[in-house]
Structures are given as structure tokens and as C-alpha cells.
Amino acid sequence: MSETTEPDESAVFDTPLLQLDLGLDSDVTVLGKAEWYNLPDAPYGGGSIKTRIAKGMLDGAEESGALTPGDTVIEPTSGNTGSEIARLATARGYDVEIVMPDNASGGKVNAVRDAGAEIHFVDADLGYDAVIERCEELIAENPGRYYRPNQYENPDNPGTHEHTTAAEIWEATDGQVSHFVAGAGTGGTITGTGRGLHSRSDDAVTIVGFEPDDPLHAIDGLKYLKTGDHYHPETYDESVVDEKLYISTTAAYDQARALRSRYLDENVPIYDTGRLSEGDIRSQLRVQDQFLVGTSAGAGAAAVAQLDEAGKLDDGDVIVFMLCDRGDKYADIPLWEDYLDESWNLRTSCCKHRTYLQRTVCKYAWNGVSCIQNWIPKSRYHWLILPAPTDQSLRVDCDRRGKQSPPVVTNGDRISSVKPVRYPRVTSWACEW
Ligand SMILES: Cc1ncc(COP(=O)(O)O)c(C=O)c1O
């Protein structure tokens, strides 16, 4: 069994509500529920919204006898659920194996590894289904060895939110909450919290769910479900959702960055401290003095802004959305990499070194220019390597994200300088010579 420092499970649930100014037209109160205050002292940005369900599913399995001493806990996951199951289950004395795509973010991979769990990496280019298949293969190879929580089917996932997240929001707002806004990955948050708030308010609270608007999205933890050919999690009961919105990656990132700018020099007001003191909250509120939230929190802010623009909010409304995790989990992607210094990047990312530039995924010709596209294991970047430009400078535009990348320069066969050009995968490029 693994030896790790035990996380304090009393530091899970009852997270604070921050009162945020999103610059809306309507005179409403917007509250963000800051979920990194689940295990806030854990490395790599603390815990997340997934600490709740990791605890809920492990408690449920131990109570039902599905998980017994000597079992190995295994779960396929791209990030937060894996790190939180790894942290809690290893501390309870179980061996843990996490199956992850090899593009999971550095901080999340490191959190799993530091907890003492074993990681099985699966080629991210094979898609997320391959991660689930690998997990099923491992279970089939060793029948009887594993317990798989299975966040996509486990009723304790929405159940935990129904009994904790919904109750906390209802109590902290004295029943004044009018809207609850959350994104869907497994759908556990929106389903469970939505059920809990509907039942407490006699359906008076409007439950607003959002999903990415594009299968090539880069909003961590969310699942593209807009068309019918995607696996629909059993834990996502859409009948709970009163209003559905679709959010672009650009809008999510823009809103996250706007929050950082808004609170660069101003205090973030605390509406409810939850189980913490104000001093404890302030000590974990900022990263390098900046208010940085994760990508799905930015998407939540974008969803609230969309409601406002559509005239769906009334003055006096109280809107709660989830700040699922803190921004330092995303130090190695083009969300916060401009704002965090290299030392922070190196701490959170496992892949910032050129030596990782190893694996050629495809070689292709585009507009007569021969390009090699590399996938860097365990990072989120595709790097596009082009021949050295002759006399003109090279520009590569990341068209789908509307972002301009820095130039990529090679010197013959030796790479003199390479830059990440897209996140996470873009299928078409615009190159100018
Ligand atoms: C950062 C983040 N936000 C949002 C979600 C979506 O939550 P749920 O799975 O409850 O729908 C997840 C799930 O992995 C996540 O990791």
C-alpha cells in the first residue's frame, strides 16, 4: 500500500462564496463558489469541485462494501477527478491506478503522481474513449483486483452535490438564490445541485446548464454533447436543466482574463466564508498576487454574461456559478502562461523542456511547405515545425481560437526556436510567408 501524507478530509465541502463584478447591465448579485477551498493546502492549486465527488464516491463504496481493504482503486480521467481520487484513496490506504490521456495538464499529472498513485498514460490522439477502454482492459486482465468509482455512472456523483453543494448554496444565500449556473462534464454538478435547489425552492430556482459549443473546445472538464453521436453520461439528467447555453472557448478564456484584470488592484469581496476564516480565504485567493480561475470557471462567467445580454436576469436576482478550480492548474496553457513566471510554470507543468519534443505525429505538406507536427507527451501543445524562413518572417495564426502565435523558426534540421502554436488541437492553419 502507498505511503502518503494524509489530506485532512474535514477540509472538504462548505466552500466560500465570492461576490464578483462581471460588469453586467442588470443590478444582480453574482456569486462564485470557490472550489479550490476543498483541500486548499494541497499542492498544484489545491483541490477542486471533484474533491467533493471523490470523497462522496469513496464513502459510498466503503459503506456499501463495494470497496474493501486490499482493493486497488482505478479510474479513467483526464484530470481533476484522478488527482482527487488519488489523494483521498491513497491516504485511506488503497493502492490507486489512474488512466489518463498523455495530454493531461502538468499540475494534474503531478498531483496524481505525488499522491503515490500509478499512472497509465494513453495516447491522447486516440481520443478519450481509448482511455476508458484501457481502464476496462486493465480491469479485465485482473478480475477482482480493482474497484472503479466510475464518475460517469455513479449516483454518488450527483448525490454528493445534491446533499452538499445545493445545501451550502441554499443556506449561504438564505434561500435567496434565483439562478444556479454550471457546466457539464459528467453532469454530476448540474444534476445534483439542480435537484437539491429545485426541491428546496419548490422549483423557484432556475437551473442553467452550459456545454462547450465546439467538439474541439479547450474548456477543461466539460464535455461536448451538442450532437447525438457523443457518449451521454448517465449522471447527467437534463430534465433538471431549465435553460441550456453553449459557450465558446474564446468567451471562457476572455471572461477568466477579465476577472483577473478586474481584481488586479481590488479586493475580491467575500460574500460567505463557508467553513473557513476570512484570513484563510485570502491566503489562498490569489496566485502570484493575481486572481486566476480555471477555464470552466471562465466559461461559467461567460454563461452568466450571456444570460444578462439576453435580458434573462431581473434586478435583485442572485446568481451562483461554480469556480471549479484555481488558475494555477492551467499555468502551462495559453490562459495564464503570459501572467505567471517561468518558475511557476516549471512547478506546475511536467513538460516545459525541449527534450520532450520527441514524437512526430504527422508530416504533411501545406501550401507547398513541408511541416512536421509534433505532439508533446503530457503537454497540451501541438508544435508546428516549419523550415527556416528565408528572407521574410513567418507567421502562424491559430485560426480557430483567433489567436496569433509567435513565429516558429528552425535552422536547417536543428531547431533553433520553437513555440507552441495551438491549444489543444487545431486542424487548419494559416501560414503567411
Ligand atoms: C474544472 C472542471 N470544471 C467542470 C467540470 C464539470 O463538472 P461535472 O463533471 O460535475 O459536470 C469538471 C469535471 O471534470 C472539471 O474538472
Overview of the molecule:
The protein has 433 residues and is an alpha/beta fold. Helices cover 28% and strands 21% of the residues. The protein folds into 3 domains: 9-43 and 157-330, Rossmann fold (3-Layer(aba) Sandwich); 52-147, 3-Layer(aba) Sandwich (Rossmann fold); 357-432, no CATH class. The protein is built from 11 helices and 20 strands. The longest helix is centred in the N-terminal third of the chain and has 16 residues, at 49-64. It is globular and about 60 Å long. Residues 348-433 have low confidence and may be disordered. The site of pyridoxal-5'-phosphate (PLP) has 20 residues, from helix 1, helix 2 and helix 7.
Whole-Å distance between the termini?
A: 57 Å
* Number of alpha- plus pi-helical segments: 11
The unreliable regions are 348-433
For the sheet with most strands, the description reads: 7 strands, mixed
Distinct ligand kinds: pyridoxal-5'-phosphate
Structural class: alpha/beta
Beta-strand content: 15-25%
Alpha-carbon Rg, integer: 22 Å
Kindly give the count of domains: 3
The percentage helix is: 25-40%
Do you know the CATH architecture of the largest domain? 3-Layer(aba) Sandwich
| Shape annotation | globular
Order of strands side by side in the largest beta sheet? 9-8-7-11-2-1-10
Chain-averaged pLDDT: 80
Q: What's the CATH topology label of the largest domain?
A: Rossmann fold
Find the count of extended strands (DSSP E, 2+ residues): 20
Mind telling me the CATH class of the largest domain?
Alpha Beta
